[in-house]
């Protein structure tokens, strides 16, 4: 690293607003960011940061997810073909073993795709931000998913139309598709619909009276359709990201004439905004809400049904993947690499103490998540202290992120973080 030649002008002090669990609810941007006209005053090679994060962190993550998503339709169809042909009355042990094995393969394929996507969740930039995150939500709409809506679309898809209009999953709301819909379809063992009697509607009138096998087949067939749509969404992401006109080029060429970003700092700020997934979605939704630190469906107490992955029981794996992705984006690669990352930017701005604090915080958060045993539902019941510790360690990182990190790099808080109270 080159020595710092000119440190940033830091933001003026603002009063910390304390509430909830005592976390500061606001932070300020550096003065050089305030007029949005010039790059921050620094000798740090911001273009090198943008190029490395784009080429060696974000692009491989998106491509890895696309590869996983594109293999899902054939794997799920192989399972569904066996489910369709299976006759439970025949009591054929060999057929049942083959069916169970195929289902396990499709579930494992979902797990791999979900882990890959949980890395991408820390990299919501460009095409994943457009149109109120429409593409991101088509891929994974949590926490807004609706299993009742999925139940309805199983039958709409089966009959081939919605109120007389030909069924087209791409025209359906994001709550009815994506990885979250697939989780429900592949892992939920209760074949009754999940809607209230009022919400079910006429489309589900006879659903609960069908045989269990017929309901399994209908859900499985829709799972193939959902997987195909997911593969299409993943390819859409790659199409918008790669190529000469792709968003990866926009990030790498920030500050050049005609670019969306008039400065390199603005492009860096979009990537730094993505790190804040760890503040709201991870810390608040995935940990604080099921812990009862925020009101949930159980009141203000630990609530296993509020976890992210109810059916696959994959919540802990998701949390670990989020922390790993945060670390990779922060470092600009793996901990063994010497690639340009935000840690180098902090060093250049004479903020090595902030870097070290954040690295220790990340290590502590990883250790806490790795100490969780079983699934998050059981941990909330049997080892709430370990879940609470994971939240505490994640919060220590996000506290630094919202204060010293933003101020030392003269970046700006994302609007969604201004009122975070946990």
TrEMBL record:
Subcellular location: Cell envelope
Domain Imelysin-like per the UniProt entry, residue ranges: 58-401
InterPro entries recorded: Imelysin-like, Imelysin-like_IPPA, Imelysin_sf
Organism in which the protein naturally occurs: Pseudoalteromonas amylolytica
Secretion signal, residue range per the UniProt entry: 1-29
Keyword flag Signal: yes
Keyword Signal attached: yes
Protein name: Peptidase M75
Keyword terms of this UniProt record: Signal
Any single GO CC term annotated in Swiss-Prot or TrEMBL for this entry: cell envelope
Listed Pfam families: Peptidase_M75 (PF09375)
């Amino acid at each position: 690293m080159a020595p710092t030649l000119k440190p940033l002008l830091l933001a003026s002090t603002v009063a910390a607003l304390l509430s909830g669990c005592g976390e500061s609810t606001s932070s300020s941007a550096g003065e050089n960011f305030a007029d949005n006209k010039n790059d921050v005053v620094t000798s740090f090679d911001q273009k090198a940061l943008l190029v490395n994060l784009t080429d060696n962190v974000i692009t491989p993550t998106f491509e890895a997810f696309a590869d996983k998503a594109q293999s899902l339709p054939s794997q799920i169809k192989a399972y569904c073909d066996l489910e369709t042909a299976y006759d439970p009355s025949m009591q054929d042990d060999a057929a049942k073993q083959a069916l169970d094995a195929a289902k396990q393969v499709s579930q494992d394929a979902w797990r791999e795709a979900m882990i890959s996507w949980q890395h991408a969740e820390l990299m919501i930039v460009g095409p994943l931000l457009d149109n109120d995150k429409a593409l991101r939500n088509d891929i994974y709409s949590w926490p807004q998913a609706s299993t009742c809506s999925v139940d309805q679309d199983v039958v709409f898809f089966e009959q081939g139309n919605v109120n007389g209009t030909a069924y087209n999953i791409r025209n359906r709301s994001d709550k009815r598709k994506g990885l979250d819909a697939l989780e429900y379809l592949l892992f939920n063992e209760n074949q009754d619909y999940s809607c209230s009697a009022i919400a079910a509607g006429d489309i589900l009138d006879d659903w609960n009276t069908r045989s269990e096998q017929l309901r399994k087949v209908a859900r499985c067939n829709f799972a193939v359709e959902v997987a195909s749509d997911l593969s299409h969404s993943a390819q859409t992401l790659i199409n918008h990201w790669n190529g000469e006109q792709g968003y990866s080029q926009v990030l790498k060429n920030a500050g050049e004439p005609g670019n969306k970003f008039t400065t390199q700092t603005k492009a860096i700020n979009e990537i730094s905004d993505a790190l804040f997934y760890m503040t709201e979605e991870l810390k608040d939704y995935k940990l604080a809400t099921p812990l009862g630190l925020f009101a949930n469906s159980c009141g203000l107490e630990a609530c296993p049904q509020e976890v992210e992955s109810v059916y696959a029981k994959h919540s802990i794996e998701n949390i670990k993947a989020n922390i790993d992705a945060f670390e990779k984006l922060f470092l600009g690669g793996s901990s063994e690499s010497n690639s340009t990352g935000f840690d180098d930017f902090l060093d250049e701005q004479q903020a090595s103490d902030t870097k070290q604090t954040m690295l220790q915080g990340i290590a502590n958060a990883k250790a806490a998540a790795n100490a969780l045993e079983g699934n998050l539902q059981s941990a909330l019941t049997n080892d709430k202290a370990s879940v609470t510790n994971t939240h505490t360690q994640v919060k220590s990182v996000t506290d630094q992120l919202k204060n010293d990190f933003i101020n030392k790099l003269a970046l700006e808080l994302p609007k969604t973080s201004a009122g975070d109270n946990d």
